Amino acid sequence: MPLINGCAMLDKGTRALGLDRELQEGVLFLTYSTLISAGRAGKSRMDQVLEWLAGGSSNAAAGGAAAAANIAAAARAWDGLLVFDECHKAKNFTPGKEAQSTKVASAVIEIQALLPNARVLYCSATGVSEVANMAYMARMGLWGPASPFVDFSAFLESMKKRGVSFMELLAMEMKAAGRYVARGLSFRQAEFLEVEAPLVPDKVAQYDAAVALWQQLRVQLELALQLAGNSNRDVWKMFWAAQQRFFKLLCIGLKLDTVIAEAKAALASGMCVVIGLQSTGEAAADAMGLEPGPLPGFVSPCKELLVRFIQQHFPIHHPQAPEAAAMGLPPEAIPACQQMRQQLLAQVTTLDLPPNFLDQLIDELGGPASVAEMTGRKGRVVREQRRVGHIIRCTGRVVYELRAKPDSSEMDSLNGRWGWYLVYVSVSQGKTEQRMTADVMDGVMLGRWTGICSCSCRGLAAADCKADRTGVLCWEHSVVCSGQVVWSGS
């Protein structure tokens, strides 16, 4: 069976009298982005796909209404197979509000309507977290003719009233009817534990000092706004947002010693290690404008976030009239505010704050040569390593290095190349399709220790912070690390 790789291949095979013979039949692969894009001669890719399914673009050679009617009739009669891989990408569709829906969702629903006799297969490894995300599954027979619900809106309203338990019953019914096939993973040899990271006195002192500085910043920011006569409430929005991000990063950093100790114990017992995070902290490095080369030490994203907020949002000038700004006059400085800002910045430099948690994990667990980083960040801070023969030696010098060449999508480690590693650090930005363990087909049997340092506030993203278990016959030891910090106060 010929494989046709995208509509561009159809473009290359189109001649004056139609498609090449070898392209008139086969399996056509295309992305969702291609499906919603424009093609040649003012036609959409959707029209091009329908013409191909109707028997090739030669049917449309004559043009006009007659050719369009022939293509539509052939499309209605077509009974081939439509496979929507990663079909959850079409979830954002709102019936009656098509303008607010995504183009991908609208295109998926439209092509199913234009091919009423086609067989349809929906494939996805992402769970349906909300019934509203099922609008594109028009062929499941859950609504429409010969079903209890007239349309999707009626189905959605009924499901919302009955809750999650009824969704489970719906899944059971779909399985019994053969419409829903899902693999069930055995929990044999799987362990799930929660480990609490104790707060030693040094960590308590770090946290208390940070809290005291944020309290002082709030008081002095309020005073500075009064002195500057600034009534802009957006400053406080930025204040609370920065504070939330700061303590989120700090709390992750306070747990790392426990996570690293547990990971090293798992390695010593002969297991491979997977560590899951929810962010990389790369914004701090971007804000500093780091360039490849040596650094005095590891970068603390907490410290850089706080410094950036004070520099950008702490007022030190009176608001300037538009006329004065148009004339190029400098704004009037407020000496008291300038002094307060300088004192705050000086106090920030004295804080003992943890470094970037991702850089610390890689450094403590053996460096880039031993740890496979599965993230999208473009650079990282590491200890310089040099290869001497078959031995990798650490020079001890801290450097900022790029993980991809400039203007390139190439990533090291598991982002683009496979290799044998015992430690994997993954940042959940949606699911990864790569297996972070040895497969039974590889002839290697290693248990896997999976540690979750931080979970997303969104249930779906938290559920996606996991590793694939396909083909794995070794044991699984999953650990969620929690801290002892209790949020209190206003």
Describe the structure.
With 490 residues, the chain is of the alpha/beta class. The protein contains 15 helices and 15 strands. Strands 7-15-14-8-13-10 form a six-stranded parallel sheet, with helices on one face. The chain has a three-stranded antiparallel sheet with strand order 9-12-11, covered by helices on one side. The longest helix is centred in the middle third of the chain and has 35 residues, at 234-268. The termini are far apart. Residues 57-62, 411-419 and 429-435 have low confidence and may be disordered.
Describe the structure concisely for a colleague:
By secondary structure, this protein is of the alpha/beta class. The chain contains 15 helices and 15 strands.
In terms of topology, how is this protein built?
Blueprint: E1 3-5, H1 7-12, E2 14-15, E3 18-19, E4 27-29, H2 32-35, H3 45-53, H4 64-77, E5 81-85, H5 103-114, E6 119-123, H6 152-162, H7 164-176, E7 190-197, H8 201-228, H9 234-268, E8 272-277, H10 282-288, E9 293-294, H11 301-313, H12 322-326, H13 335-350, H14 357-364, E10 371-374, E11 379-388, E12 391-402, E13 423-427, E14 448-452, H15 459-464, E15 476-483
Parallel strand pairs: 1-4, 5-6, 7-15, 8-13, 8-14, 10-13, 14-15
Antiparallel strand pairs: 2-3, 9-12, 11-12
